[in-house]
Amino acid sequence: MRQAATSVAYVWPMRLLPRLNRRRVIAGSVVTLLLVGLVGWAVIPSPATFRTEEQRITVRTGPDDATEVTLDTTLYLPKKSGRKPAILLAHGFGGTKQSVKSDAEDFADLGYAVLTWTAQGFGRSTGEIHVNSPDWEVKDAARLLDWLAARPDIQTDAAGDPRVAAVGGSYGGALALLLAAQDQRVDAIVPMITWNDLSRVFLPESTGQGPAAGVFKKQWAGLFFGSGSATTDLLNAAPQRTPTGDAQCGRFARDICNAYLDIATTGKADEDAIALLRRSSPAPVLDRIKAPTLLIQGQVDTLFPLSEGDANARGIAAAGTPVRVAWFTGGHDGGTGPQSEVDRLRFLTAQWLDHYVKGNGKAPENSFTYSRVSGLNAQGRGLVTAASSLDTYPGVAGTSTAGVALTGGPQDIANPPNGNPAAISSLPIANIASLLGAGVSAEIDGQHADYTSEPLPAKLDVAGAPTVRIRAASPTGEAVLFVKLYDVPAKGAPSIPDGLIAPVRLTGLPTSIADARPVTVTLPAVVHRFEAGSRVRITIASADTAYSSPVDPVVYQVAADGTLTLPNVAGTPIANPDVIWRYVLAALVALIAIGLTVTILIARARGRRIERRVDADLADTPLVVRGLRKTYGDFVAVAKVDFTVQRGQVVGLLGPNGAGKTTSLRVLMGLTRPTQGEILVFGHQLLPGAPVLSRVGALVEGPGFLPHLTGLQNLRLYWAATGRPTEDAHFDEAFEIAGLGTAVNRRVKTYSHGMRQRLAIAQAMLGLPELLVLDEPTDGLDPPQIAEMRKVLRRYATGGRAVLVSSHLLAEVEQTCTDVVVMHRGEVVAAGKVDDIVGDSPTVQLDVSDVDAAEKVLEELEGVRSVAWSGGSGLVVDIDGVPRSEVVAALVRAGIGIDRVTPRRRLEDAFLSLVGGDTKASGERS
Hints:
Oligomer: single chain
Shape: elongated
Helix content: 25-40%
Largest sheet: 11 strands, mixed
Strand content: 25-35%
Distance between the termini: 44 Å
Strand order of the largest sheet: 1-2-4-3-7-8-9-10-11-12-24
Radius of gyration: 35 Å
Number of helices: 22
């Protein structure tokens, strides 16, 4: 997929994740996931070649420049002669220069000189982790600018001033901001999913009190500290020295280590710790940033939420610096987002760097863009988003607000000792929320209070930070609370949009809720659509797994007052970018439209022809297959197949692998055309696109679902694609058939194979089609589910409908089906009632009182071919036509008791006799 911009185009770098290991599953891999080199490929590309230079560059760093640190670097240089503009490409926390290797290569192909390096304290670089301290990591980056400026192959603006952009995500994004504030030689920056104030990030407080009263974000902090304190190279697991000489601190600088240990122990930060974290934050120095800034922030990010990007944007713009803000449906918890998001951000970054670094084209607008999930990718590869824009950035307050009334009075909630057990709102590991799907949140009974709206009369869009007023009372005078916004759909499980919650620490509280004064809580900014009929809920909880809580048990009184305020943004859909490919695309769309028109006209004409070819005598017969033959060149997949399926029948289609069963089903479903013969469904000749297919439901060659949607969403989208009324779908019956319970509200990517199979069967039964065609329906089901499926199929056929089942499980077919069709080598070798196909048994099972004596009697009985012990008191006897009554009489005369006489022939025996034990596949036919 290609996208151009001005004079060049770029690739969104999604190859930023190093190989996962135990360490990388935490923050190191998270932050590099969205580090965007945002490199691309040209409309008519012939990527330039490049060479690399691996160097260990020693820089003098520290507050007094007295410390030498050696940085492991790679310079990517295009081979084309001349001076090149440069990009300083920073990796995320826990990564190395290898984390951004692919992105650096793409930049170099486009003519940039790209310098990547491993930050001190990581990988093979020396030094300690100071968390982007201006005296250490930021100064290191400035020294690298000096190094670039001294090279004869780097474009400069003046002596010692390279033409350079700083690009990075998360840890690297904060570095880009801090470097631009500290070194005015930086010409443009693209910081992504990063922080504004590190003290507020790890000690958030949602009533505006600041980090001194913040609630410690213990899970994210612990993951980062655990990653950074590792004493191994995260890329190659090579042993590294421990600079501090302290196994507790690992490669962290002592001041950072001590601050973390103190905060993690007490759950609070003193003034020194807050000052240390703020020193590693862009917040105090935003007014010094003069480099044009494209800020990209993730909407699904519990580490660095949209409020952090908002603070950066407002601070930089206040100094008169050009700023463009882009929100997208990904982040530390949400990953890259759908491909449509990747493409959008690719284009925005292409414009920004192309103009401000290469000097091409007009200056991009200082606009704001955001997006919502809007539907399905036309190629069936997941979700797409619809982006909107405003001329100016509105902030998290939005451009308009809507009030939603909440109901519910004061309630008691308990804070558990040491915050355990606690509610779950999110899990701070990259993409883990998407793996678990909707429903990741879980509240603990007795530890939360709910305040819910009436069902919404119409859809309600939210884009920004909602606010609500709450009151609280506590016998200790203090309370730590977690305020959450829930979407409660009419059908399905409640969920917290993007897993984002608002921690609150309240002090000076009365002991009675009647005396409590309301405080305003600002919830995290979200972009979310509440559908009509859904309810909006505010939940106030006493403990959450992601945060620290008071250690002592206590009971709070809480209340939510009146109205929840929800902001929105009056954006307009983003038009195609004003570049050359816009016109190419317009022409392509026109050609496609003409082609579609012609195709539709042909299809309609063909459909009319098909509809006229109706056999009135078979209008009530679900399926008739006549002389079906299908070849692929010289290969015969189906030689000759004839059979009929009547109403009320459950017909099993049997045959060894390669017998032609699936090919026959594909022709039956209109997925391919027969070479010869015909298929009639209710008298209508069946061809691809035949309208009569609307009376057929099918599961052929396994289920196919969109993994990022829930089971319920997949079913609803499938039915919507049919264009038929929702009330005709019979969703309740389908849900009952699927038997997934609340799992129907989870994303399909979390389903087991058996769960996907059950969902696929439910999809096939949507609309209760008159003919149901299932290929291996019990594949992946456990025994109880298989037994239930038997009942479902039998019951389904009793209503005048018919079922055709292809299966290898002969015992299941025997117990489920009324009729069978046996195929072998592309032909039907038998068809009829199951009992008729099985026929009389040449073998019987006997349970006798004396096995040895019975065996001797039977071996002497004329006509008996064989006697075999089957365990216990059982014998299997091949009577070869001898009447069973004669066998029984012989045993009785010998004084042997007989408990049971049963035929031994099964469908399997009949099947094997029909195919002669030959399991040669179709592909082996002579």
